[in-house]
Amino acid sequence: GRLNADNARFLLLAVLIVLYMLCGAAVFSAIELPTEREAKERWEERLENFTRRHNLSRAELRHFLREYEAASVAGIRVDDIRPRWDFTGAFYFVGTVVSTIGFGMTTPATVGGKIFLIFYGLIGCAGTILFFNLFLERLITVIAYVMKSCHERQLRRKGVLPHNGRRGSGTSEVDSLAGWKPSVYYVMLILCVASLIISCCASAMYTPIEGWSYFDSLYFCFVAFSTIGFGDLVSSQNIKYESQGLYRFGNFVFILMGVCCIYSLFNVISIVIKQSINWILKKLDCRCCHTCQRKLFRSRRNVVMPGNVRSRRNISIETDVVNESDTDGRRLSGEMISMKDFLASNKVSLAIMQKQLSETANGYPRQMSSNSKQNGFSGGVGALAIMNNRLAETSVDR
């Protein structure tokens, strides 16, 4: 049933994520491990030369370096930097907490600060995630409205839709406009372009002010906007800048806009991943059904052709439905099924029809055109559900 399909999707996604992590670990290990070994060899050589030149023991020098590491955790650096725990520094810290970026350049050192952070972050992160979801809802509303307006304009140019906005009857294009939704791929492209523009503009600001290369600035933008937050590069940390107030305000605006756009982009990409998983499961299910069906066809005699009773359904990777049983797989394959499977499928169809009649009588769910396309926005929870509901609202006739 549906539960088995969800479990199969979950297991396949878990396997793919593990494989993705293994491949990523292999690539990063091959790229970064030689540099790490070279840096360690250089450090050991410098450490040996320093102890010999100043007549120090390795143990004393290592003890001094451990003390510096402890001071570094508290925010002490060799070069002068802005105070970490004045009001502006603390505000920058809480911004990295509630946005889940967590650069790590500032961390509470006291027990009281650590306890307060647990409760503060619990509420702050939840509230910020809610803000991101609301931002995503409004962003999808604007994108869907603009794309639908462009679609209507194209229909008017073709003469399918009258210029006064009233739809005629008898044309499939006009009928499909009632339930039309923008393609998930177009939405993903728009969000990619928006994120790229914000990152490029922010990098143009960081490069001259922070003294980073443009590539390092782009790298920082992705790490910060995606809330990964390694902390190797952190903006607005020097003690003094030219036009300091303006720069810090611009830094705040760019990070806020970038995080919102990347968060929305991640949710759209997750829909595409879900579609791909459904497509893979469908292909695997079809192959298994063909193999099993040949065995069943040889062993069973009472069979009927489902061609006259099979419901016509448009199957595509945009739908979240996968073949939930061997019966569905054999029906979609266009070959014979047993009488038992035939009766079982009719029982399921009757239950679905009763559910639809009940929902219609109670006035829900939202009525859509019979030939409307989901385009990958069906179903989902959290941010995915928000996107689906908002797209459903924007697809209603104005």
Describe this structure in words.
This is KCNKD protein. It catalyses: K(+)(in) = K(+)(out). The protein has eleven helices and two strands. The chain has a domain at 1-78. The model is unreliable at 301-339 and 366-377 (pLDDT under 50). Helix 6 packs antiparallel against helix 8 (244-299). The chain is mainly α and 398 residues long. It is 69% helix and 1% strand.
Total number of beta strands: 2
Strand content: under 5%
SSE sequence, one letter per element:
HHHHHHHHEHEHH
Intertermini distance:
38 Å
Largest sheet: 2 strands, antiparallel
**Which residue ranges are poorly predicted, with pLDDT under 50 across at least 5 consecutive positions?**
301-339, 366-377
Overall geometry: extended
Strand order of the largest sheet: 1-2
Helix fraction by DSSP (H/I, runs of at least 4): 55-70%
Structural class, please?
mainly alpha
How many H/I helical runs?
11
Mean pLDDT: 76
Q: Cα-atom Rg, whole angstroms?
A: 29 Å
Short key terms for the protein model shown above:
single chain; 398 residues; mainly alpha; two-stranded antiparallel ribbon; 11 helices; 69% helix; extended
Write the layout of secondary structure elements.
Elements: H1 2-54, H2 58-73, H3 87-98, H4 111-158, H5 172-177, H6 184-210, H7 214-225, H8 244-299, E1 303-304, H9 326-333, E2 337-338, H10 339-362, H11 383-394
Antiparallel strand pairs: 1-2
Helix pairs in contact: 1-8, 4-8, 4-11, 6-7, 6-8, 8-9
Quick recap of the structure?
This protein has eleven helices and two strands; from the N terminus they run H-H-H-H-H-H-H-H-E-H-E-H-H. With 398 residues, it is an all-alpha fold.
